[in-house]
Design goal:
Elements: E1 10-14, H1 19-35, E2 38-45, H2 62-80, E3 89-95, H3 98-105, E4 111-115, H4 129-137, E5 142-145, H5 149-156
Parallel strand pairs: 1-2, 1-4, 2-3, 4-5
Helix pairs in contact: 3-4
Length: 157
């Protein structure tokens, strides 16, 4: 195969706005800069099963969830790329369960990068359910990036 005709490598990174996902984005940017890979920043979203509180349930439209996801992703990418302007970043928001969306997006990718814990799950766990699912089911290598900021602040106290 002629190398000049091959497509550039592609790294997929899951970004949900959590501290761990922001560190994963920063790590993926550095890796993309080192390898010349394109970076696909992906924010998966879904309408919660029990959205709202008490007697009155207000359910925003899927368009509102999509808009919020796009805004959150754009803000995260903007902050992370301040020092890495040379990396091509494609931003995508997809409706669906984050684990399944990331696995589907990783098809054909050279690497999948996720944070150790997102916004859901139980505080204090080392690896969240989405990252654990990705490690077990991804069609490519997976890097799980831990958010050490909580540990750092605990050590400083």
């Amino acid at each position: 195969m002629d190398v000049s005709e091959s497509k550039p490598e592609r790294i997929v990174v899951g970004v949900d706005g959590s501290p761990a996902s922001l560190r994963a984005l920063e790590w993926a940017l550095r890796e993309a800069a080192l390898t010349g890979a394109d970076l696909e920043a992906l924010h998966a979203w879904e309408v919660p099963a029990a959205y709202g509180t008490g007697m009155v349930m207000t359910v925003p439209s899927s368009e509102e969830f999509e808009a919020a996801a796009k805004e959150s992703l754009a803000r995260a990418v903007e902050l992370a790329t301040v020092n890495d302007p040379g990396v091509r970043v494609v931003q995508r928001t997809v409706a669906g369960h984050p684990a399944r969306v990331l696995i589907d997006a990783a098809e054909g990718a050279s690497l999948l990068v996720v944070g150790s814990r997102g916004h859901g799950g139980f505080v204090g766990t080392l690896v969240g359910s989405v990252s654990q699912y990705c490690v077990s089911h991804a069609p490519c290598p997976v890097v799980v990036v831990r958010d050490l900021s909580e540990e750092d602040s605990a050590q400083q106290s």
